[in-house]
Amino acid sequence: MESFKPPEPSDSRQSPEPSEPPEPPESSESPESSETGSGQPESAEESSPGKRPRRRGRTALLIACAAVLGTVAGTCTGYLIQADRDPTPLASLSQPKVEQARGPAPEPLSAAQDRRVKTDGDLRKLLLSKPKGARYAPDLEGADKDWMSLPGYANLHERPGKAFEELLESEFRRAAVKSWKQGADQYVDIRLVQYHQLEDLQAAVAAESDQYWAEEKDGTSSETIPGTGAGMVYVHTRPTAEPGYVPFYTAQAHAWRGDVAMEIWIHDTKPISKAKIMDLAKRQMERL
């Protein structure tokens, strides 16, 4: 009887055979080739590729800074040298010495040569005198001895606050007024308003503004004042009626001469003739 021999165990997972270590690659260059043709070894910068190369431009920056410092130092040195020098004397003036005038001062210009001789004086003297038989009316609010203050003149307008601001901007100087009552119910107001006029011709602007509003009223007849250029008179043929007051008629005149604006107002319970307001306006402008 033959003896039974068990089969050798078979394992599908065979352990891999250890691989042989790779042979080092043969260098294509001989040791002698690491040297340059001159026989010197390569520099460290060339032989070490991982090292950062030297940055350029630092030398140029140093040169520029040195140039700036040199310029500043040279400028300071020049100032110090110039400060130590004596000042150069100026050349003498070529204009001869002007002798001071002697004797009395020249006579001032007359009113015929300079119209401001009148207007720079007492403005009240240029107002028309009240006619015979007329009575002085009570002073208007803000008026004192024929002078009217800026707030008093502003109160004569429909919007006193706004008028006050506009008069300040218009370089208001002063105002002379005169009022009288003639007959039963006729009142006459004459105003001469003067402006500084340092920048604009405010007297003309004020008169033209009053003329514009006078022309806007219905039932108005107007006419130019002779000899004044643009002076105008206005007669309102429709009475003004207010609750609690007797209806009244109005006539007005507006003109200017130089820095003075003229206003004339007539109020009456009866219609006013154009000849009446025209006569007052012509005579008042002649005094200016």
Q: Unreliable segments (pLDDT under 50, ≥5 consecutive)?
A: 1-7, 9-19, 27-47
Which structural class should the secondary elements be placed in?
Answer: alpha+beta
CATH architecture descriptor text of the domain at 178-287: 3-Layer(aba) Sandwich
Q: Helical stretch count?
A: 7
Descriptive report:
The protein is of the alpha+beta class and 288 residues long. It has a domain at 178-287: Protein Transport Mog1p, Chain A (3-Layer(aba) Sandwich). It is 27% helix and 21% strand. It has helices at 44-47, 58-84, 116-119, 150-154, 160-169, 202-216, 274-287, and strands at 135-136, 143-144, 147-148, 172-182, 186-195, 220-224, 232-240, 248-257, 260-268. Strands 1, 2, 3, 4, 5, 6, 7, 8 and 9 form a nine-stranded antiparallel β-sheet that branches. The longest helix has 27 residues, at 58-84. It is elongated, with a radius of gyration of 54 Å. The model is unreliable at 1-7, 9-19 and 27-47 (pLDDT under 50).
How is this fold's topology laid out?
Layout: H1 44-47, H2 58-84, H3 116-119, E1 135-136, E2 143-144, E3 147-148, H4 150-154, H5 160-169, E4 172-182, E5 186-195, H6 202-216, E6 220-224, E7 232-240, E8 248-257, E9 260-268, H7 274-287
Antiparallel strand pairs: 1-4, 2-3, 3-4, 4-5, 5-9, 6-7, 7-8, 8-9
Essential attributes:
288 residues, 7 helices, disordered N terminus, elongated, 9-stranded antiparallel β-sheet, 27% helix, 9 strands, alpha+beta, Protein Transport Mog1p, Chain A, single chain
